[in-house]
Each structure stands twice: as structure tokens, then as C-alpha cells.
Amino acid sequence: MQDLKISIIQSEIIWEKPDKNINHFNKKIDEIIEETDLIILPEVFSTGFPVDPNNFAETLNGKTINWLKQKASEKNCVITGSILIEENKKFYNCLIWMPADGKFKMYNKRHVFHLGEESDLISPGKEKLIVELKGWKICPMICFDLRFPVWSKNRFINNTFEYDLLVYVANWPAQRSYPWKQLLISRAIENLSYLVGVNRIGTDGENNNYSGDSAVINPAGKIISNINPGKEQTETIKLSYKDLNQFRNDFNVGCDWDNFEIND
Fold first, then answer.
1. Which one of 90, 101, 166, 184 has the fewest beta carbons within 10 angstroms of its own beta carbon?
2. Residue 50 near residue 117 (C-beta atoms within 8 A)
3. What is the CATH number of domain 4-254?
4. Nearest-CA neighbor of 15 among 53, 51, 52?
5. 81 and 52 in contact (C-beta within 8 Å)?
6. What are φ and ψ of residue 29, in 5° steps?
7. Active-site residue among 28, 69, 75, 109?
8. Residue 27: how many CA atoms within 13 Å on its side-chain side?
9. Phi, psi at 12, each rounded to 5°
10. What is the pTM of this model?
């Protein structure tokens, strides 16, 4: 199995300015000189959070989707992050998994944030997404999903793990940065998986502050990235499948995991 190179972009998001955000992230992506397999942007990277989806939700043929197609093709890699999508007269906080060939997949945020009134307008998703990249199985999720360990739980079936990398894209406020950092580590340890959390920085239109605290964590719970809190920064890091496999062989608690089902 090949190693996986990922690039994480911790950035400010300009409140309710999709065109400016697209231009901003366009430059950030162009600044990634070395080859990479996966570029990860924050949650709702084109608008910020929370905003009215009636004014900012796009269709699956919208400007941001087409921009993602163009950039993924240019960089010959996958680009992922979430945007607001309208589909079948419903609004979703939708993660787009955009490969170089433009044949994208989607994950709609399962746990919409009631305390932030996201649930008043945004419909919850119902299905996980597991994608493959260079032989790696990857499970992308969105922000508040981090607080729900059952939804995030890896499975070990027929001596095979359901995923190898768990990804969270987020707009997670600085006042709750301690839980963010602890939960990221917990999710990596309990799922015997690499984990990436990509969070925004700056201040939104409702004066919520964001410190970023983006991180890449190995299955032992060790932070292996060098992103600084509160700083706009991009980092490319290599994930070793050999190290992951060795750790799982040395300490495979997966065979003792409980079987379970999730009901709506």
C-alpha cells in the first residue's frame, strides 16, 4: 500500500462573501507546490457559518462545484470541504469529495447544530461516506459530528477495518477549543485510525472567534502536524500506511469491538 500525502489549509473565511473566499482558497491551493493526493478545506469554506442557506446555498451545478472540478483537475488530486447545497427543495451542509476526474461524491452533515440554529434550516444527512484513495479507505465528516462517537465509529469486519483515515472539516469556535482538541485525539485512538481535523480561524459575522487548532493525529493519539493555532497556514504531510498497519498488528483491539446498528 502506498503512503498518502495530504495538504490541510487552515484559513480565515470571509463572512458571506463566496466570490472572495473562492479567490482566496484558489490562491492557497496554487501555493501548494509539492505533489499531494488530498487537499482539505474547512467546513462551509465559501460562506462561513452560520449563514442563511436561502441566500447562499448552491446547486450541484453551481459555481463552487465547478471551481472544485477545475482545481482538482489542475492539481491532479482530490479536494474536499463542505458548502451549502440545495437539493430536492432541502438545504444541506454538504461535504464534496472532488477527484481529478470530476466524478464527485457527497456527504451531508449528519449532526446539525441545534444550539447554533443550524437545524432550523439545514436537513441532516442519513448516510456515511467511505471513499478510497490510493488504496486508503477514508471517512469524511463535518464539525459537530465529532461529538458523536457512535456515528464516527470504525468497524472491523472479516479482519478488515472499515476505514484508515477519519477526516473532520469544521467551523469550531475558539471558546470550545479544548473539547475539539481532546475529541480529535479520542476519535483517533478509539478507531485505530489516522485522523485529520481542519478548522478555520478568524471572526465570523456574529463575532464568534475561531482558533483553528487543526491537527493530523496518528492512531496512537500523537499529533504529527505542525499547524499553529490562530495562524493562516498550509501544511502537507505524509501518512505512512506501513506505520498504520504495524500499529494495528501490534495492538489490534478491533477484533474485540462491539457490533452495533444505528437507527434514524
1. 101
2. yes
3. 3.60.110.10
4. 51
5. no
6. -70, -40
7. 109
8. 8
9. -75, 150
10. 0.97
CB 17 within 8 A of CB 45: no
Residue 199, C-alpha cell as written in the block = 478548522
Q: Domain map of the chain by residue range?
A: 4-254
Q: Are 3 and 239 in contact (CB under 8 A)?
A: yes
Beta strands in the chain (DSSP E): 4-10, 38-40, 78-87, 90-98, 105-108, 131-133, 136-142, 156-157, 160-161, 165-170, 194-199, 201-203, 209-211, 215-217, 233-239
All three cell numbers of 174, joined, read: 475558539
Span 187-195, average pLDDT: 98
Q: Which of 71-75, 85-89, 118-122, 242-246 has the lowest mean pLDDT?
A: 118-122
* 88 burial type by CB count under 10 A (0-12 exposed, 13-18 middle, 19+ buried): exposed
Respond yes or no: is residue 143 known to be catalytic.
Answer: yes
Kindly name the residue from 69, 143, 153, 181 that is annotated as catalytic.
Answer: 143
Do you find a cis peptide bond into 50, omega within 30 degrees of 0? yes
Residue 115 has pLDDT above 90, yes or no: no
Task: Select which of 28, 43, 58, 139 is catalytic.
Answer: 43
Residue % of the chain over a pLDDT of 70: 99
Annotated catalytic residue 43: yes
Report the pLDDT value the prediction gives residue 97, as an integer from 0 to 100: 99
Section 223-243 average pLDDT? 98
